[in-house]
Amino acid sequence: MGYPHPSHPRETPVLSKYFGDAAARTLTGWQARGGYETLREALATDPVEVQNVVKDSGLRGRGGAGFPTGVKWSFMKPDGKTHYLCINADESEPGTFKDRELMRWTPHQLVEGTAIAAHAIYAETAYIYIRGEYTEPIARVSEAVREAYAAGILGANAMGSGKRVDVHVHKGAGAYICGEETALMNSLEGRRGNPRIKPPFPAVAGLFAKPTTINNVETVCAATHVLRNGAEWYKSLSNPANPKSTGTKLFSVCGNVARPGNYEVGMGFSMKEFLWDLCGGPPAGRTFKAIIPGGSSVPILTPEECEGAVMDYEGIQAAGSLLGSGGVICFDDSQDMVRQIARLARFYAHESCAQCTQCREGTAWTTKILERIRDGQGTMKDLDTLLEIADNMTGKTICVLSDSCATPVVSGLKKFRHEFEARIPKNRSSVMIPAFSPAAA
Amino acid sequence: MTAPAAPANPGMVTLTIEGREVVVPPGTNLIEAAKTAGVLVPHYCYHPSLPVAGVCRMCLVEVEKFPKLAPACATSVGEGQVVHVHSEKAREARKGVLEFLLINHPLDCPICDQAGECELQDYTFAEGRKDSRYMEPKRFNPMEDFGGDVLYVPNRCILCTRCVRFMDVVAQDPVLNVSERGDRAYIGKFEGSDLTHEWASNVVDLCPVGALLSKDFLNKARAWELDRAASICPSCSQGCNVTLELRDNVVVRIRPRPNMAVNQHFACETGRLNYRWINRRDRLEYPQVRTADGLVTASWSDAIAKAAALLTGTSRVTVLASPSLSNETLFLLGRLATQLGATTVTTVPRGHQAPLPGVPDLSLRAERAANHTGAALFGFVDIESPLASLGPDDILILADAAGLVATLPAGSTIIVIGTVLDDAMRELADVALPICNFAEEEGTFTNLRGRVQRFLQAKAPPAQVRPSYRVAGDLATAMGGGAFPALASDVFGVLAAHVPAFAGLSYRNLGLQGRPTAAPAEVTV
Tell me: the pLDDT tens digits for A41-85? Predict the structure, then answer.
């Protein structure tokens, strides 16, 4: 299948196998495709065994941070406390829309993965936190949850296993920061969506101060396939040369590209082939100028840097950026990088939760300077100021929103400095009014 | 991984802060640990009486082996940690925070009430940049009346959220919030609510900058013009530790003084705003005695002699004393009463109670007198109508008791020891002896939990006014009660030697935090 394009022959559609297949959305359709058999088996398996299979598979968190999922699950011990599972379906990172399609086409895939993950962490209650703008995914997942309850897949006696699995769908109110795991928990609790200071970590005191695991939509969907086909199968999908990044990854491709959309490839796929063969390269008559490979928060790459890169956690890091959430944003040679980076900064300034000083003030200041440069009112000194502000914004705050705003500025200034300089009027050293001098008057 | 080494001090955590070894209980944060080494970690959002927020990022310090700078407020001490507060990396980070805080901050220190006691000013002076790189227009939000005694100036606000946390967690009256996001954020008030909580004014003290201001203190004085004296709030029996702040011998503000055993860092609205009476100008300034020409000014020796002459005889004497007089004065009035075989009574004014829910046993108390516990210890009985049984031939000594009783019996002999003499009293008094109010003398109060706390002299008394304990002592001496010391500290020494509840206490060991009496009053919460 594939959506909006048929799957490319070089894709490895595992999670995205039923994209475009409307029949897979219903419970009967999902069961006809083998759905919920893995959940039945998982519920009969000891959670530690489930954790170990996922650990062996090398599956890492698909939300951006890339933390090993099995290890995260193993933090949750059968300690008699109430545990919670949160599924992060906020997908707020600009340029990322893989979870949207997973939820639109295969909501039962998410419900199944959620139930398995809940079982693996000794939780009876799971919350799926979906961003408010995702009206169709909210409707699809809510319907899937309703169907699953009606069929006894969820509830007090999930699939007759004697275990309770409750899944609640929660609609976010539309804030980028609510995709940060601790802000998401605050939002779920009915508080302002502000990130929490760590420690305590969610595994110790998370949602409602109880041990909590937060997983991305894609992560729990992938975990189902790991359990169904085994850890070795999962590892075989990716480049065996790099055992640290395994399985497949969904990449959302947008911007100036011939065929935008979601692509699922094995980890370690060549970025050059991905961009030019699968995605069709830049629009006709254009060339790529810049690529952001992992959502708007990661460093910008030049096409040259992309050419030799492979698409896994380590490969993109070696090229100078991060895999992040897998949102590939393409810019062609018609784009003005000053304008683009100023727009990104404005987004972060708008979305800063206002807790930490560096972020609240730094994102807005960065935006004001960038927009001044964009409008031809900048000075050469502004460029140094921008870098110093970025340095003051990096690594000093509760969450990484501040760092995320600084990242495109630093990498953009490094790689496209000439575009910034071209915007600055010649011989202009300062826009400040000179001090009044009585001698000159 | 090697096993952690055994702690150098069992049960405690030993670490090094700025080259100094400190030993603190486990779980202490780095700011508090640094305080024990005499090191101040600059901070804004942290406050010892509020939950940790970790948002201002000012208290970033360098901890060896940590990958990043650590917020000292939210980092617990670890055995063997080596912490650098003033390393270049930490200083640079704080310099960055200060620059960010200042870009949208109006540099209106010359007209800001907080100037001189502003942490933004202080830390900028200590560690900030000397120039500004900010060339954009500053954010603007208009000033807002938060109700109660509080004004909000959002342009000066650094969003530390101390006020929000105070109202949420300590006052438990969630009126304030952070509204909006990013640099548009400001402290908002929930729809339909105001800062009218009895303890809401604490947000003014908690605010590290000039964003939350007291309407009462607005534009009255610059912080550096103020004289300050440690005192005890006289408005109820809680005994909140306060600082009296004066400009040119006039009290202009009462602010809480930290005492973790009594009021933590807080004071109520009633206590803060009840200071104008201290500054009354229509005082009784000279001793007065009644002659054929009416009440005339006399010397202190003549006035004491006249009072002694009146008291010599067989008449019944009643001493009605204010429950807000000091332990020292009430003790000496008690001695005088013993000498005369007099009845000792008081009457405690009452009002509404207003607890501060987040602090145990802290409330504006119904008993609106600073020392009713002390009065009881010295034998003054609290009676609603203390003069009901007074006969026409009785002698009445009124010690700072004007206003405690509505009407005075005509025909009695009345000796007034007081700060003021109103028209009615001027008609009735036979002798009037002018005394200091509590701000003009030194002394101690015993609070409702039996804690004895010192207050210091804050202002000069007018004219020939004398400390109340001295007047009481002189009268007792004149009646043959022996000599008493002239200093409050020495009077307290005599008191401690004679009254078992005060055994072992002295001004030296009371310090400025006070101590419980030997037999503390029964605690009822």
Answer: 999 999 999 999 999 999 999 998 999 999 999 999 999 999 999
Distances (CA, A) of A51 to A117, A154, A236, B162: 9, 21, 19, 43
Query: For chain B, what's the residue count?
Result: 525
Residues A126 and A117 sit within 8 Å (Cβ to Cβ): yes
Fold of B134-279: Alpha-Beta Plaits (3.30.70)
Same-domain status, A273 and A207: no
Give the integer Cα–Cα distance in Å for A428 and A379.
6
Q: In chain B, where does the domain assigned CATH 3.10.20.740 lie?
A: 13-96
Please say whether the beta carbons of B94 and B58 come within 8 A. yes
Would you call A357 and B158 a contact, using CB atoms and an 8 Å cutoff? yes
- Residues A271, A229 within the same domain: no
List CB contacts (< 8 A) between B185 and chain A. 354, 360
The residue count of chain A comes to: 441
pLDDT per residue over B263-285, tens digit each? Answer: 999 999 999 999 999 999 999 99
pTM: 0.93
Which domain covers residue A382, as residue numbers?
A: 337-423
DSSP B190-221: -TT--S-STTTTHHHHH-SSTTEEETTTTTT-
Q: Is residue A430 part of a domain?
A: no
* ipTM given for this complex: 0.92
**Where in chain B is CATH 3.40.50.740?**
288-516
Would A153 be classed as within a structural domain?
yes
Which of B55, B100, B181 is closest, CB to CB, to A361?
Answer: B100
From CA A346, how far away is CA A82, in angstroms rounded? 40
| DSSP code at position B147 | S
Strands (E), A175-216: 212-216
Give the up-direction half-sphere exposure of residue B323: CA atoms within 13 A in the CB hemisphere. Answer: 33
User: Which positions 355-384 of A are in contact with B (Cβ < 8 Å)?
Assistant: 355-358, 360-365, 368-369, 372
Order of all β-strands in the sheet with B70-71: B20-24, B13-17, B82-84, B60-63, B70-71
Same domain, A146 and A275: no
SS3 percent helix, strand, coil of chain B, rounded to 5, is 25, 20, 50
Whether residue A419 lies inside any domain: the answer is yes
Q: Which of A110, A120, A128, A123 is nearest to A47 (CA)?
A: A120
- Same domain for A52 and A86: yes
Q: Which DSSP letter does residue B183 get?
A: G
Residue to substitute from A187, A355, A394, interface B, most B β-carbons within 10 A: A355
The three-point CA angle B495-B382-B525 to 5° equals: 85
CB contact under 8 A, B134 and A365: yes
| Chain A with chain B: Cβ pairs closer than 8 A | 91
